[in-house]
Write the structure tokens for this entry.
Amino acid sequence: MAKSKAPAKTPADGENKPIRHLYLIDGSGYLFRAYHALPPMNRPDGTPINAVFGFCRMLVADLLDNPEIDHIAMILDAGSVTFRNKIYDKYKANRPDPPEDLIPQFPLIREAARAFNVTVCELEGYEADDLIATYARLALEAGGTCTIVSSDKDLMQLVRPGVELMDPIKKIKLGPEAVFEKFGVTPDKVVDVQALAGDSTDNVPGAPGIGIKTAAQLINEYGSLETLLERTKEIKQPKRRESLENNAELIRISKQLVSLRDDVPAPADPDSFDKRRPDPNVLLPWLEQQGFRTLLQRFTSELGEATAPVAPTSAPEPVKKAEPTAVPAASASKKPNRDFTTADYELIQDVKLLDEWIAEATRAGTVAFDCETDGLDSNNAGLVGVSLALLEGPWGDVNSTRRRAAYLPLMHRTPGGAVQGALDLLGDGGDRDAGKLLDGQIPLETAIARLKPLLEDPAVLKVGQNIKYDMAVFRRHGIEIGPVDDTMLISFVLDAGKNNHGMDELAELHLGQKTIKFSDVAGSGAKQVTFDKVPLDKARDYAAEDADVTMQLWARLKPRLVPERVTSMYETIERPLIPVLLSMESAGIKVDAVKLKGLSADFEKRLAELEGEIHKIAGREFNVGSPKQLGEILFDEQKLPGGKRNKNGSWATDASVLEDLAAQGHPLPVKILEHRQLAKLKGTYTDALMRQVDAKTGRVHTSYHMTGAATGRLASTDPNLQNIPVRSEEGRKIRQAFIAEAGHKLLSADYSQIELRLLAHVADIPALKEAFARGDDIHAITASEMFGVPVKGMDPLMRRRAKAINFGIIYGISAFGLANQLGIGQQEAKEYIGRYFERYPGIRDYMERTKDFARKHGYVLTPFGRKIHLRFIHDKSQGMRAFAERAAINAPLQGGAADIIKRAMIRLPGALTAAKLKAKMLLQVHDELLFEVPEKELDKTRDVARKIMESAASLTVPLVVEAGVGQNWAEAH
DNA sequence: TGGTTCACG
DNA sequence: GACGTACGTGAACCAG
């Protein structure tokens, strides 16, 4: 017998309204999805809550707040035994148990739905999917439409006009196209494909040897499963034919298993699913119990205080956790000024309105702005428009403020012009393409002239998201923007390691707002247009939103700096670094294109030779660049010993494997290694670098990302100039192509052993500190202390091993890693580590202290106060925790070194100017700075650089900088 | 798009 | 007792 659990509607709601659009939430599917998507969180009483939190966030932000939704219900499985078990007893038999910290959340999702006054439906003997199918049908028959909130592929068979699927985490609507992408057939044929292909997670057998690809092909060819089974004789491939002929019955059973029933007895009339206001007496106490503070705040102001609070149902036995973590209240969704929408964004098309905005911004004292361009390269992209946003009212109080945002289009053009932007070599911003300037735009020169006083006004703070980019664009129009704040950097100093710092992610996280995607306004793939071709109305929505979101993020994040003790990290390191990096990026470095071309030709010739030799030894032709084909040659065909497989089952062919084989005297791996090295050099460096040379300057301009690495290191892209080869002879030839301008030389200054020095400092190891103070060879000293041999006349092998251990310590040593590095047994490695800790017990103490700190606080600190969060420090997987612990040990050292060189970089431009030197800082490679120096100023510049770098921090060990000079980077380094 | 490999500190 | 492992990046290439 079916039993209904649909709650009665509250009398106050009156009559049910008929369905227009029904939302059906696949409750357990959603819970699993949210569980895996969100980091562990706990309720104040310790109960794990992440999946429920994700569920509530979705429910509020996407469903209850969406006025288009009038009917909504959550569907659940009533039990584990259904009619399908009668058809096939092994159905879903090998489902693993859910994770233990998910189990207590199952009952909570029922509570959550009840608290928000959302109907819960379940039906014994049937799965939630059958109920969903049935309600989808009922909705259609009632003349309405239906959205199923689930990412379960089994529900794809229900997609049809009026019924769509929505991924609850990605918020993507899945229509027939998505179904076709997944199953290769239209939605009505999905069950046929599933019946043939089977499903290992649900233990649906299907036809052995036939997967989704083959199944789709067969169904599309024969039209339906039944026709196919009748005409199996026509199938040419013997294996397929046999599989189908021998398993016809099993396939029919499979079809019954995967077909959803849309005729089950519905426990409640779908008209009764109408969206209802939550009852404050139920919702508020429940939210409080879960610790969802922002939601509580919001609903208290929306619904009013509870008048007769109903105590939340008793909580299940909480899972005991060693270190309960707080629910991040700030990440809950919250939308200030909910009546403010994109429709309120303004379009500035005349000078009068622009002047008004500028006056308003000047009066407000803080303005968010963002510029839109026709490319991504900040050195060349042309300015297309500017957006501005204001937040007026009490500082930082998002609830009692008024939002305003506007877009000022400047260089939008009619579509149909030649593709340009990145390909633009003239860079003049003029008549470089066929598109004509659109009407209704203030002339660029006029707008620039009006904006300049605002953007340079020392009394107006300009807030940007990755403002380095905007500063670069405006600099080329003669505007030096300042003073500035950067929400990306504020987020970085607050939350490095917790989340990334792109605007879309921050908007979602802190404002609960999904931003308009660039591809929504500009298209995607080959059809994508540059922003100047986007129509003004769309451009306004997209661009004004950027400034609007930036302003709100600033109001949300900036007040956290002081209480979370990262103000000085932001104000003395990250923010002042912006203009320094900007100058380095726009300076670029000269490369010798002729030299690169020659190298490329050399490499190409040698590669062709090697390829011939390799094919000869292998006995056949194959793609040497394909690890898959190579693995098959080496281990399946040549039957070489010692094949390892990587996690997806294919043969591993990385350098360490090939080196092992080479050491055993096999000729093929030797050639492959050489081929790999040259292919890398040619593909990644010579050829790619030539393409990156800027036509205007004849130099390459990298772009530095300030928030790419959680430790505080910079990252370099387009091109990455932080991984130019240096370790191999062939590779160094590429460095030779980085050259100085005529009359100049390159000066390279790098910190010696900076991370080990920091280790000696923070762990406070007298023996190491003294060795550094004396200027001793630190690896030799370590070897001497460990193995009890004098430094003089030491076996180089011992020094090498000590060096590997010193590095290992920095990385959070493990016996496995050290053994791998040194090519010794794990036992031996373990013994070395033991001996090291015996000699330097302070280092072991430091490592333990650091791990404890990370476990207690969820982050670690560099000596300069940079915070690095360890997201996985309490993960339930031992492997993930160990990973986080090693990262915790490494982060203060790597991050501390990053702090030091950043401090030096900030001081250097001023110091050079003060010494009347014209040297330019060009590149930073983590512990090295590269300068281009007029030949006559070499000595002075070297002295200044060394002095500033060595005094960038005062530690209990000296900082030592080694400098070199040359015509090219290889010589200087 | 994800996995593999390899360049750097 | 088994498992998966050195820390931090970005780019090219292959395969699906």
About this structure: The domain at 591-700 of chain A is CATH 1.20.1060.10 (Taq DNA Polymerase; Chain T, domain 4).
